[in-house]
Automatic annotation (TrEMBL):
GO molecular function, one term: kinase activity
EC numbers, comma separated: 2.7.13.3
Pfam families membership: HATPase_c (PF02518), PAS_4 (PF08448), PAS_9 (PF13426)
Keyword tags: Coiled coil, Kinase, Phosphoprotein, Transferase, Two-component regulatory system
SUPFAM superfamilies, per the entry: ATPase domain of HSP90 chaperone/DNA topoisomerase II/histidine kinase, Homodimeric domain of signal transducing histidine kinase, PYP-like sensor domain (PAS domain)
PROSITE patterns: HIS_KIN, PAC, PAS
InterPro entries: HATPase_C_sf, HATPase_dom, His_kinase_dom, HisK_dim/P_dom, HisK_dim/P_sf, PAS, PAS-assoc_C, PAS-like_dom_sf
Catalytic activity of the protein: ATP + protein L-histidine = ADP + protein N-phospho-L-histidine
Positions of the PAS domain: 171-214
UniProt domain Histidine kinase: residue ranges: 473-730
Name of this protein: histidine kinase
SMART domains for the chain: HATPase_c, PAS
Domain spans labelled PAC: 122-174
Length: 731
């Protein structure tokens, strides 16, 4: 809809005046016709006909309201476009607020000001919700109408739909904003080279203000252009439509900035479109520039050229490095064609480097293995790979280590081949030498292990011999005074009994004891001494016997006088060992005692080294006690730690001897500890007290000194048992 024609009609009619009768009819009734309202304006009744024809043919939406905002006249477009059947089919007499209930406060304020005579004509854009549910932007043009006396009787309302123009205006504003804030410099240039528009980026890039740039021509800022060259270039651009090239722009203070230019030829006539951008307003010129125009986009490529220069320099450096590599280097695309090779590879095959580019891999037919490696590498998902291949170089087979690396997202790969022929020959010779050296080393290691074991055993034997001599000397020194004490305890006990009997006899015949003697007897506690003194001698007798048994056990354990193989009682050795370790079985240090269970069979005397067997018993029993002490602490402690010693006779067709079993009910050994239980340097220590060297020595003494057997059993449910088999007669 066009608002111009309607506004003109209303303005012309507003100069007329209504009669007082017609004004009264407008105020008192709502069914008055359009003709009666304008009867005073047009002489005769012919005015009614003209007014009806005018309102019927009026192409715009226009209406008249009285001071109470009730419709007194409407045009047909207003009736068709803005009426609401739910309110009334005929809008005459309907209140304006019923038809438009959501108008803004500003609209109502302006309407009140017009009715009050303080505001003549005013315009306002609002958004309306129509009866069909659609949304429409409209432009209101409002002016008061007056009676013939000059009193304001109401308002003339005109509506123009501006939805499309408003959307187009918003689009143009966004386009203009995008152009002004574009990252590239934008210049609009006429065919004579004059700048008619520049954006903010162009001002920043060239260092000029917008007013300064609009006074220049394109060849003022591009030193490569002149008026003649510009004319030729304009013709070229017009012929091609657009053109992209690199150029230079001269900035303020003489700085030259390299740019990439994209220029488009705009040959649009103003009459071809309804809306045009008025560049004259933007540029400050009085007239819009004459089309066609050249739209010139310039992008600063200073950083890109600097980066390109660095890349070129780096490429030259890389080429120099690759040519210096003493290996065969090649670049291959995923379509299995050479992208390039280094000088060393070209020299190796006598082919210039440029002849490799674009050729298929394998065109030289010198290494099928390399060809297969390249094919397989591009077929796989691996980004790196390596393989040894054999290639014929100058008619001689050579061995190369090929290392491959993909790049460009797998579209190409670089292959580096290092000549390892001499190294391969050296490796073969070295492998043969290593095999011989390995055999010698194994022999030496076995001999060293045997030597270490022998040395360890000799050291342990020497220690035990020294310890035995020390224990024997101590036992001998203890034995003499103990024998003296033990031999005189009986005489002393008899003497005391005689003296006590003498005192009793004296008291019998002399019952009247002098007071001095009576006091002394009470002072020394004669009655208590008479009762306790025999008990004291009995305790001394038990202690002396205990010391004598310990000394005897020490002498039996050391067996210094039995270093040769002889018939011996196994039970004596076990008992002497258990007696020496008796203190470790007793409760101490916050832990309970260890229960000892001995189950001895009826064993004959066996031929053995008694001292060495006692050492075996000592090492094994000590190991069991350490395990039980460890099992008696922690969250998994056992309730009743028990050490069991069992002896039985073993008879079969191929062997006859005795079996000694030493077991505990502690935790079972782990598979790792079980496998190395007899290893002298690898076995796990128990409780951090000692290593398992004693188990290794026991294993050696049983197997090699007595020709027996020793086995370790540790069931999963717990416990550990050592089973020792000693033949009755040892060879």
């Amino acid at each position: 809809m066009q608002l111009t024609g309607v506004s003109r009609i209303v303005n012309n009619q507003s100069t007329q005046s209504f009669s007082s009768q017609e004004a009264a009819s407008v105020s008192n009734g709502y069914n008055c016709s359009y003709n009666s309202m304008y009867s005073a304006a047009v002489p005769g009744r012919s005015g009614d006909i003209l007014f009806n024809q005018l309102m019927a043919s009026m192409p715009t939406a226009i209406a008249m309201v009285d001071r109470q905002m009730r419709y007194v006249a409407i045009s047909q477009p207003w009736q068709d476009h803005y009426s609401d059947s739910q309110i009334s089919e005929n809008l005459l007499g309907v209140c304006h607020d019923q038809l438009f209930p959501n108008l803004s406060d500003r609209w109502h304020e302006n309407a009140e000001a017009s009715l009050a005579g303080t505001l003549d004509i005013w315009e306002l854009e609002t958004c309306l919700s129509l009866s069909d549910g659609s949304i429409e932007w409209v432009k209101w043009v409002v002016k008061p109408w007056k009676t013939e006396t000059g009193a304001i009787a109401g308002l003339i309302l005109s509506l123009e739909a501006i939805t499309e123009s408003k959307q187009l205006k918003d689009t143009l504003q966004l386009t203009q904003l995008a152009m002004d804030r574009a990252a590239d410099a934008v210049l609009w240039i006429t065919l004579d080279g004059r700048l008619c528009y520049v954006n903010d980026t162009a001002c920043r890039l060239l260092g000029y203000s917008r007013a300064e740039l609009l006074k220049l021509k394109i060849y003022d800022i591009d030193p490569d252009l002149s008026p003649t060259i510009w004319s030729v270039q304009c013709e070229d651009i017009r012929h091609k439509g657009s053109l992209t090239f690199e150029s230079r722009h001269s900035c303020r203070h003489g700085i030259i900035c390299p740019v990439e230019v994209n220029v488009n030829y705009l040959e649009v006539k103003p009459s071809d479109i309804n809306i045009k951008v008025n560049t004259a307003i933007q540029t400050g010129d009085r007239h819009s520039p004459t089309l066609p125009l050249l739209c010139w986009f310039a992008r600063d490529i200073s950083e890109r050229q600097a980066a390109s220069s660095v890349i070129t320099e780096s490429r030259d450096q890389l080429e120099a490095v690759l040519n210096a590599v003493p290996g065969l280097v090649s670049w291959v695309s995923s379509d299995l064609r050479y992208l390039g090779v280094n000088q060393h590879l070209a020299n190796a095959y006598g082919v210039p480097t440029h002849q490799f580019i674009g050729k298929e891999v394998g065109f030289l037919q010198t290494s099928p293995e390399f060809n297969q490696f390249v094919y397989a590498f591009f077929d796989s998902n691996n980004w790196t790979s390596s393989r040894e291949i054999i290639a014929n170089v100058k008619g001689e087979p050579r061995t190369y280590l090929i290392v491959a690396q993909k790049y460009h997202r797998g579209a190409a790969a670089v292959f580096v081949g290092l000549d390892i022929t001499e190294r391969r020959n050296m490796e073969i010779a070295l492998r043969l030498s290593e095999e011989q050296e390995t055999r010698r080393r194994s022999e030496l290691e076995a001999a060293l292990v045997q030597l270490q074991r022998t040395q360890t055993q000799l050291v342990q034997t020497e220690k035990m011999s020294s310890l035995g001599q020390l224990v024997a000397g101590i036992a001998h020194e203890i034995n003499n005074p103990v024998n003296f004490i033990f031999g005189n305890l009986g005489h002393g006990y008899k003497y005391i009994e005689d003296l006590l009997r003498l005192v009793d006899l004296y008291k019998q015949y002399y019952p009247e004891t002098p007071p001095e003697i009576e006091e002394e007897m009470e002072e020394i506690g004669y009655d208590f001494i008479k009762i306790d003194l025999p008990k004291m001698f009995e305790s001394m007798q038990v202690g002396a016997e205990r010391i004598r048994d310990v000394v005897r056990s020490l002498r039996v354990f050391t067996r210094l006088d039995e270093a040769q193989m002889k018939a011996a009682n196994i039970h004596e050795g076990l008992d002497s060992t258990l007696l020496i370790l008796q203190n470790r079985l007793q409760a101490k240090g916050g832990r309970g005692s260890i229960k000892l269970v001995k189950t001895y069979g009826d064993l004959p005397l066996i031929e053995c080294y008694p001292g060495q067997l006692n050492q075996v018993f000592m090492n094994l029993i000590t190991y069991h006690i350490d395990r039980l002490e460890m099992a008696m602490v922690g969250s998994d402690r056992i309730a009743h730690p028990t050490l069991s010693v069992t002896t039985t006779i073993v008879e079969s067709k191929d062997k006859k001897g005795v079996m000694i079993s030493i077991a505990d009910n502690g935790l079972s050994l782990s598979p790792e500890d079980f496998q190395q239980v007899f290893e002298p340097l690898l076995a796990t220590p128990t409780c951090g007290q000692r290593t398992a060297l004693g188990l290794s020595i026991a294993h050696h003494l049983v197997l090699e000194k007595h020709g027996g057997e020793i086995a370790c059993v540790s069931p999963p449910q717990g416990g550990l048992e050592f089973r020792i088999y000693i033949p009755l007669k040892c060879n």
